[in-house]
Write a structure and sequence with these properties.
Elements: E1 3-11, H1 16-23, E2 29-35, E3 38-45, H2 48-59, E4 64-74, H3 77-86, H4 88-94
Antiparallel strand pairs: 1-3, 1-4, 2-3
C-alpha cells in the first residue's frame, strides 16, 4: 500500500458496535482499536484518491461526535509523475499570476 492513515472517531458508547460494523464495510478501512467512546480506524490504499474517498465516507457516518485524521502517509511519487507527464506542472510554473491558473477539479484534466 502506498497510503496509510489513522483516524480517531468519537461517538457515544451505545453506537460503537454499529459503527464498527459499518466501518468494516468501507473500502480500505479497518477498525484497529475501540476503547469506550473512541474508535481508531486505519485506511490503507494504493492511491490518495481512494484514501480521501474512504475518509469522506467515514465523515458521513451517523452518530459521530468528531472525526480527526491523526496520522497520514502518502507516497506521492506516482501522482507527481502523472502531473509532470500531463504538463500540469509546466502550466502552473509558467502562469505567474494566480488569475491565469484554471482548475478543472483534477490536475490531470486537460482543456
Amino acid at each position: 500500500m502506498n497510503n496509510l492513515s489513522s483516524v480517531l472517531i468519537l461517538s457515544k458508547e451505545e453506537y460503537i458496535d454499529e459503527l464498527k460494523n459499518v466501518i468494516s464495510k468501507i473500502p480500505f478501512c479497518s477498525v484497529e482499536l475501540c476503547e469506550n467512546e473512541k474508535i481508531i480506524v486505519v485506511i490503507e490504499s494504493e492511491n490518495l484518491e481512494d484514501e480521501l474517498n474512504s475518509y469522506k465516507m467515514l465523515e458521513k457516518l451517523p452518530h459521530i461526535i468528531s472525526i480527526n485524521m491523526v496520522f497520514s502517509y502518502q507516497d506521492l511519487d506516482e501522482d507527481m509523475q502523472k502531473a509532470i507527464n500531463s504538463g500540469a506542472i509546466k502550466t502552473i510554473e509558467k502562469n505567474e499570476n494566480a488569475e491565469n491558473v484554471r482548475y478543472f477539479g483534477s490536475i490531470y484534466n486537460q482543456i
